[in-house]
UniProtKB/TrEMBL annotation:
HAMAP family: eIF3d. The RNA gate region regulates mRNA cap recognition to prevent promiscuous mRNA-binding before assembly of eif3d into the full eukaryotic translation initiation factor 3 (eIF-3) complex. Belongs to the eIF-3 subunit D family. One of its GO terms (cellular component) is eukaryotic 48S preinitiation complex. Pfam families: eIF-3_zeta. Residues 45-61, 165-177 have a biased composition (Basic and acidic residues). It comes from Endocarpon pusillum (strain Z07020 / HMAS-L-300199) (Lichen-forming fungus). mRNA cap-binding component of the eukaryotic translation initiation factor 3 (eIF-3) complex, which is involved in protein synthesis of a specialized repertoire of mRNAs and, together with other initiation factors, stimulates binding of mRNA and methionyl-tRNAi to the 40S ribosome. The eIF-3 complex specifically targets and initiates translation of a subset of mRNAs involved in cell proliferation. In the eIF-3 complex, eif3d specifically recognizes and binds the 7-methylguanosine cap of a subset of mRNAs. Component of the eukaryotic translation initiation factor 3 (eIF-3) complex. This is Eukaryotic translation initiation factor 3 subunit D. One of its GO terms (molecular function) is mRNA cap binding.
Amino acid sequence: MPSISLADTIESLSLDDEWGPETVTSTTLDGVPYAPYSKGDKLGRMADWTQEGKDGRDGRGGRQFNRNYRDQQVYGAGTSSLFAVQVAEDESSFSVVDNTRASAKTRGFGRGGGTVFRGRGQRGAAQRGGRGAFQRVGQGRGAAQTGNQYYDNRGGRGGRGRRFGWKDYDKPQRNRDSSVNIRPEWSMKEEIDFNRLLKLNLETSEGEDIDSYGFLYYYDRSYDKTQTKMAERKLQSLERAAYNVTTSQDPIIQDLAEKDEATIFATSDILSMLMCATRSVYSWDIVILRHGNKIFLDKRIDSTIDLVTVNENAADAPLEAETGQGGTNQQSTGVKADSINTPSNLALEATIINHNVGLQTVIESDSARLDFPHPNPFYNPAEETEPLASKAYKYRRFDLSLEKDEEPLHLIVRTELDAVVKNNISGEDQFLTIKALNEFDHKAQGSGGALDWRTKLVSQRGAVVATEMKNNSCKLARWTTQAILAKADQMKLGFVSRANPKSNTSHVILGVVGYKPREFASQMNLGLSNGWGIVRTIVDLVRGLSGSEDKKYVLVKDPNKQLIRLYDVPLQTFEEGDDGSLGALAEKGDGKADEDEE
């Protein structure tokens, strides 16, 4: 059989024998080729030329495979480049410079690795630990831990879940009320945020004593040994005459102002609030009175500055019961209207506790007490029936001058001391300030993760104090500042708890711990130079606004933002309450104020 070669076969075929569509050299679209497509493609994908993304991925970030046949590549998926617009100029030489810092590694594996989950409501909650152990490093407000994951229950995803808790999505936004009603006739002169206040700095001397008034009882050292539950002491309610007079109604400050001893006058509780303003969360207000060339830092009657807050700086602070219509307040906040754990009720409870602890921890003896050169300036024995409380007032002067000042700028502050104690080694008298931290219910909302004081105060006292520093940063900073201003040798902190967590009428003293104010301030990262810088800035602002005219201003902390506002108010503002009016400076009264409620 003869063999047929391939060449003979091709030569025997003619063009007329070809099968298939007619071969054309151009299309009706002026040389633009058609995009190939498959019968399996959906109608909407035939002309979809935007599916191709970076690195051969589609617009959704997935690889270009058909949804129904993932092992088959979609026809025409790579043809969008055929229709790409060709730019006239070469842009390959252009580049964008990214000057942002390289982001930190967000996920690590192995021993000591950390995992960071970010939510919408916080900067980030980091966890770090060894094998199978996780420790909270920076948990944001509202973050909770479940297993080895952190979830942000304020919105935003952490790990695999978003919500933690019952109806956390339905929790209302925490809106607090201002401490004073902003009236329409008030004119806002300045608004300063906390970030600007934190950058201020002014170094001053330790101050000098001008005069001293009152007397002090000796401290009862037996309270330092209260360490076990068997040694708990019931907190008593003692009837003693105590005074908290504002600056402009103090007769001693009025005399010092007439003698031109200083330019600025204040009391330690008002001055400490201003110096620790950046740590505050709740709203407060200070009345600033410009009379001649003198500036007085005042407070209103029933001012929030006199109240002792509880867990103000906690991540989950106590909730105020709203007075909604139709009895809906419990559904909106989860706090009953008659709850004893609201911020206002807790502040009133803590204020009474602080008043009674200072009276109970001293030994009242007329023969063994320390008298100062002058008697109490606010006590009138002809009118008072209750005995005086152990209290000494030191009027001290600080220099706030700068090198550029033509005249010196001095501040006189009235400081307070609560007791005196003998030094064990030298036998010299040492001055004390006595304050009290109170525990309401470590299991209740707003406790801030506090430990049970009855079981942990002895074995884990450092952890208890560290938790209080976190939850009550503003309150402890104010107390420390007041002790340093008074030049106290020690600051006594009493730990008071409820006898029954469900009742706020009966309390017990678990123990008293002493600290040196300067050392305690370093533990809290508290620097007085920043506080003095805030005071000098506000004073310069007031002096620049008022000139030589008599003016009255109100400095208000915003209830929901980290900023303070200075308002120019009429001179008759708060005159009905007779607190800080010009008439109080012109007339010298006995300076007596209402006693603290017990």
